[in-house]
Amino acid sequence: MAVILTKHRERSFQPSALLELIKPVTWFPPMWAFLCGAVSSGESLAANWPQVALGLILAGPIVCGMSQAANDWCDRHVDAVNEPHRPIPSGRVPGRLGLWVALAMTVLALGVGRLLGPWGLWATAVACLAAWAYSAEPVRLKRSGWWGPGLVALSYEGLPWFTGAAVLAGGMPSFFVLTVAALYAAGAHGIMTLNDFKALKGDRLHGVRSLPVTLGPDVAARFACIAMVVPQLLVVALLLVWARPWHAAAVAVLVAVQLGAMRRLLGDPAALAPWYNGAGVMPYVAGMMVSAFAVRTLELVP
């Protein structure tokens, strides 16, 4: 009887599971990237604080939260193998409630994006399309270890950075801002590849061709490290060319810290990928902000 009651409780709706569904722990990367974009625009954050605050809420709780709900709904069969304790496979978010949450948050995202002007609206629309293209059939780009992480990296780092810069500047960001944002978005492909390690078993069973599945953990981890380091080294080189030596030195030091963490990671990628995503990624995102301050006052010389 005790077992039956326990199972019944696990399969009953729990309102707190809705917060778990939209995963607050995942909100930081796009919020940080939006803030980097706002800083890189060269505009005053204090003078534009309503736009900054609204953009942070949009990037994190709303758009990222929506993408997590959509992904969990579309991944419910895979999660039943990998992580059966998650809200949908456990039954704590029953029926189609997870789908309705994702759809409602998509509409909310577009409404809030409109408050940030045309740049905010169009960027939000692209982010919403990317979220559903990543998770939902028939597109479901997450089945590819190349396109899936690339799309997430663009959506988590490049697109919020672009949005923060465009919204505050009221137009297309500068060449310098676009270049640095694109390089950090490219490097985030490696972060997303390491994130796929946690779903290795379920991905194999359900035909998700992540790089850890297709290349094997060792090769995939090496690729991820190279993917993260090379764009950052290009940022260092560009900052030197753009006469920002102190910023370049700071980013170089942060890359050196990552290389030390990567050396440990490569000793046992399957076991240490979650550790690296928790510890080794922080120097990466710190370099993003250093670079944002570096380019905020740069202008093209005729």
Q: Which residues sit in consecutive blocks of at least 5 with pLDDT less than 50?
A: 1-10
- Radius of gyration, rounded? 20 Å
Structural class given helices, strands, pairing? mainly alpha
Largest sheet: none
The best one-word shape is globular
Order of helices and strands: HHHHHHHHHHHHHHHH
User: Cα distance, first to last residue?
Assistant: 79 Å
The total of beta strands comes to 0
Number of helices: 16
Mean pLDDT: 91
Number of domains: 1
Portion of residues in beta strands equals under 5%
As a percent range, the share of helical residues equals: over 70%
List the helices and strands and how they pair.
Layout (H helix, E strand, L loop, with lengths): L1 H9 L5 H6 L6 H13 L8 H26 L1 H7 L4 H4 L6 H19 L1 H19 L11 H23 L5 H21 L4 H7 L4 H4 L2 H25 L3 H21 L3 H11 L1 H15 L7
